[in-house]
Specification:
Residues 1-39 are annotated as: Disordered. The protein is built from seven helices and 22 strands. With 426 residues, it is α+β, with helices and mostly antiparallel strands. The strands form five sheets. It has a six-stranded antiparallel barrel. Strands 11-12-13-16-15-14 form a six-stranded antiparallel beta barrel. Strands 17, 18, 19, 20, 21 and 22 form a six-stranded antiparallel β-sheet that branches.
């Protein structure tokens, strides 16, 4: 048993299907004669049908001219009916071409030379016998001015560095100076000499993004071996609030407002660019969910959040945020017996933040806030946890603003006005 092609039905070597090595069976001569007779009859019938058809075709114009047909035949007008739809040739047809591939490559070429590598060198500790360590990430050149170029990257890329180096796309290594870093938003700004810098990225408006738009990530996953890698995806969500533990106590201290994308973001992509189809930077890649059951969930700091932070870091070396000057803990973390006992709260109060300490000379001390005060609202906005208070202060208010703090003290509800001051240590 074998297989063969179907080009020649009489040739086993070319006919598709099964074939057998047994000889073909032949029919008796009488049956062959009967089949031959039937074939002649069919041929005669076919010839008659063809001849009849020709007679009808040739006689139709004459019958039409005599008015013996219920319709007219115009031999000068071509038939333009296709499936009962009239074809309109009055205007030439126009083809619309959308070359997505070309758009992506153009966008990448526009900004790729502004995406650089960042190397973090940390000296070993002679007391713990630790060896020197080297970490790598990515960064984006966003400004060139006065002989200097400025690079934005992630705080966790440069954290703990004794020495920083920026690697340009042509392989040139340039020493970098850290101008400022922000733990809360995970952003940092570096300064380098602009001698070899030719391309500067343009920031786009992340507030105009919609879910489903193309998103392109550029960076150096796994270090310089894969420098300037490009991955493509979409904006999966424009507003994601991700809880972040800043002090390692297992409690969220901040809710990071980020873009979600399915463009692949791997270790080393941190600090790189997320761009739109126009080649504009719409986010600084920061993190991803790294679990075995999760795929394609990465996050990027939107430019609407990043730009004012970058400006402060470049100008002041820190972010100018207003603060109350208090240590806080979410009420939900306090045992129930202490809520009604130590704090003397009404039983229906379940959310808020507890003041655990008041900094000397802070806004809170000047306004009269005390330890064990339970803040439930600020300017009429409910507070469920500590991250809500920080988000309100850091995004909705500025230094010098006066806010109304609603709190419970010894079971009594009261309002206290507080004028926000310069930030102190977080």
């Amino acid at each position: 048993m074998g297989y063969y092609d179907s080009q020649d039905p009489n040739n086993k070597s070319t006919q598709q299907g099964h074939y057998s090595s047994e000889p073909r069976h032949t029919e008796p001569q009488e049956r062959y004669r009967k089949k031959k007779g039937k074939g002649r009859t069919a041929l005669s019938a076919f010839g008659g049908a063809v001849l009849g058809g020709l007679i009808v075709v040739m006689s139709t114009p004459a019958l039409s001219s005599l008015g013996w047909l219920p319709y007219e035949i115009d031999g000068n007008t071509p038939n333009e009916q296709v499936n009962s739809t009239q074809i309109d040739n009055s205007e030439p047809s126009q083809a619309v071409n959308l070359n997505v591939s070309s758009g992506i490559t153009d966008a990448v070429e526009k900004v790729s030379d502004a995406v650089v590598g960042v190397t973090n060198m940390q000296q070993g500790d002679i007391f713990s016998q630790q060896e020197a360590a080297e970490g790598t990430g990515s960064g984006v050149i966003y400004k060139k001015e006065g002989g200097k170029a400025y690079v934005v990257t992630n705080n966790h890329v440069v954290e703990g560095a004794n020495e920083l180096t920026v690697t340009l796309t042509d392989g040139t290594d340039v020493p970098a100076t850290l101008l400022g870093a922000d733990l809360i938003t995970d952003l940092a700004v570096l300064e380098i000499d602009d001698e070899h810098v030719d391309t500067v990225a343009t920031f786009g408006n992340s507030e105009n993004l919609r879910a489903g738009e193309p998103a392109i990530a550029i960076g150096n996953p796994l270090g310089q071996s894969f420098a300037s890698s490009v991955t493509q995806g979409i904006i999966s969500a424009t507003e994601r609030s991700i809880p972040v533990d800043l002090d390692g106590d297992g409690q969220p201290d901040w809710n990071a407002e980020v873009l979600q994308t399915d463009a692949a973001i791997n270790p080393g992509n941190s600090g790189g660019a997320l761009i739109n189809i126009n080649g504009e930077v719409i986010g600084i890649n920061s993190m991803k969910i790294a679990q075995s059951a999760v795929e394609g969930i990465g996050f990027s700091i939107p430019t609407a959040v990043a730009e004012p932070i970058i400006s402060d870091l470049e100008t002041f070396g820190e972010v100018k945020r207003p603060q109350l000057g208090v240590g806080i803990r979410s009420l939900a973390d306090i045992p129930v017996q202490h809520r009604t006992g130590t704090l003397n709260l009404p039983e229906d109060i379940e959310n808020g933040v507890v003041v655990t300490s008041v900094a000397p000379n802070s806004s809170a001390q000047k306004a009269g806030l005390q330890e064990y005060d339970v803040i439930v609202q600020i300017d009429g906005e409910d507070l469920n946890e500590g991250a809500d208070l920080r988000r309100f202060l850091y995004t909705d208010r500025k230094v010098g603003d006066t806010v109304t703090v609603t709190l419970y003290r010894d079971g009594e509800k009261q309002d206290i006005d507080v004028q926000l001051q310069e930030p102190q240590s977080f």
